[in-house]
Amino acid sequence: MHHHGYLWTGPKARFDQEALRRPPHPEPPPAGSRPELIQRYREVAAEFPRSDLPPLETAHWLVKPGSLVRGTWPEPTAAAGWLHERLAEYASRFASEAQGDDGHRAFLVSSAREQLASGGDVSLGFYLERPSYLSLALVSCSPNRARPELPCPLGE
Prior knowledge:
Blueprint: E1 2-11, H1 12-15, H2 35-47, E2 71-73, H3 76-90, H4 97-100, H5 102-117, E3 122-127, E4 132-141
Antiparallel strand pairs: 1-2, 1-4, 3-4
Helix pairs in contact: 3-5
């Protein structure tokens, strides 16, 4: 097993486009459905796998392009170290001073290390200076506990 890191930052309004953050339903709309429903399904089916928006389900990062992977680590400690570095990098921009606190960040990193060690995923989000948002994720891969059928985006 290894772990991939993902980072997204952008306008909160874009992050809120939930339809583009969830995969399309496995079955397309039935024949005879309203044309706008069929068109929307096609848009989501085409956009979700290639969109850089964070998926609603953390494991679905694995269906995104490998180019979105910011790092890969064989051990949870190294992956948590990347998270620590990103939290420190963005701490001065957090909208809430409490989230930028060293103790709080240390707790998040420690918790992430434990979660990864047990085969889980980690997903964190922070409001930055308005109206920006930061999403950080660490996803266990090969296999992912929540979605073992999803292949590694880097073919590892």
